[in-house]
TrEMBL record:
One of its GO terms (molecular function) is nucleoside triphosphate diphosphatase activity. This is dTTP/UTP pyrophosphatase. The keyword Magnesium does not apply. GO terms for cellular component: cytoplasm. It comes from Aureispira anguillae. Keywords: Cytoplasm, Hydrolase, Nucleotide metabolism. GO terms for biological process: nucleotide metabolic process.
């Protein structure tokens, strides 16, 4: 398969994001920098993923050179006015999944594309309808899959997505963590 331009600098260690970019046909290098994922308290919750994606892109800006584009993204799970971050531990994962059980929440992925010439920032929103999940099922999921690096304490491509998601409204890959169609279109204009 012929590779697609531009060459990307991916500011993520996510294996799934890497796989999606490979499948889209992009060449990329991974560039990482630890970033504190904090944001202004008065920032509207739905804007947090774009803010964090920009922050991650700016953190690796020193790697930019002509013909390359940084791709940084961030995903949050939002229900009402509550952001469900990555769980701190087993108890936190159980709490999060118990609160999401049987309800509808939003998964918002923000993306920042940054080159020497321009910056494009956007997000994509998907709604996820969870079936009720028993404490026994939550215990099974958390112990087996250890979703401590997942916003909302779950990954749609794992057991919980197969067994407990009744419906999604929006793009599946946005829930995975990269709105591939929007990324592809945006990169076509670089």
């Amino acid at each position: 398969m012929q590779r697609i331009k531009p060459h990307l600098l991916l500011a993520s260690k996510s294996p799934r994001r890497k796989q999606l970019l490979n499948e889209l046909g992009f060449d990329f290098d991974v560039v990482l920098q630890d970033v504190v994922e904090d944001f202004p308290e008065d920032l509207p919750k739905a804007q947090v993923p774009e803010f964090l994606a920009q922050k991650k892109a700016q953190a690796v800006r020193g790697h930019l050179e002509k013909g390359k584009v940084i791709l940084a993204s961030d995903t949050i799970v939002l229900m009402g006015d509550t952001i469900y971050h990555k769980p701190k531990d087993y108890e936190d994962a159980v709490r999060i999944l118990s609160e999401l059980s049987g309800k509808v929440h939003q998964v918002i992925t923000g993306v920042c594309l940054l080159s020497l010439e321009k910056e494009v920032v956007f997000s994509d929103v998907a709604k996820v309808h969870f079936a009720p999940i028993s404490l026994e099922e939550i215990d099974f999921y958390v112990k087996k899959f250890q979703p401590y690096d997942k916003a909302g304490a779950y990954a749609i491509q794992e057991w919980i997505g197969l067994a407990k998601i009744q419906k999604i409204e929006g793009a599946y890959n946005s829930i995975v963590g990269l709105p591939t169609q929007k990324v592809y279109d945006a990169l076509s204009n670089f």
